[in-house]
Amino acid sequence: MTAKASEYEEIRRKRLEENKKRMEALNLPNLSQALHSSPLSKSKSHSPSPLKRVKSRTIEKQVVVVRRSSRVANMPAPVYKEVVIDRVVTPRSRRYGGSYDRYRDYSKRVYASDEARQEALDKADKIQSDLQSKSHHPSFVKTMLQSHVTGGFWLGLSVQFCKTHLPNRDERITLIDEDGDEYETLYLARKTGLSAGWRGFSIAHNLVDGDALVFELISRTTFKVYIVRVNSPGEGEEQ
Asked: Where is this region: Disordered (predicted)?
């Protein structure tokens, strides 16, 4: 153990002597001493840090008069306060001989009974059977629901009938009632139903929940429409 320690000390001493000789060869001891004794180093050692010499900014607050237009300079300053304004209600216009709100007020909906609905549907089926015996025009029967005759006024048609007989793109389709009056509607091919214009037809004919309609396609974009009233003894009777 002692031999190893003495050997380490000998190696360390030799390295120190070698380093000392290298420093003397490079004249490093004299340069270090000259640097410490120079006036520049003394002045720097006693000079404060540049950050310490930064003066804090003083913010001066001043009252500035806001410039006003010469037209209102001599007028008193405006005073703002809350003012309650009475709401003005404009009555809705009447269309198709009836009140607009009548078809939007869901609380006044009248639903047909299952028996009355089925009775109207049976009468419509008989009309369709008679039409098919007289002509080869395709036709279908549609029972009216509340969504068809109130609110949104959207009439969805049979998907199979639309794919087989109607255009494969949006087009105008004409509805002709039993009096010969024509109503133009918009057929939406992707949704297979009637949109714009159907509302006018429905209101003009006072359609209600439970009515049964027979649609006879007499041309590519024209339907002849027969209406069977719910709770009505007549067939195809208009009101």
From this structure: 20-55
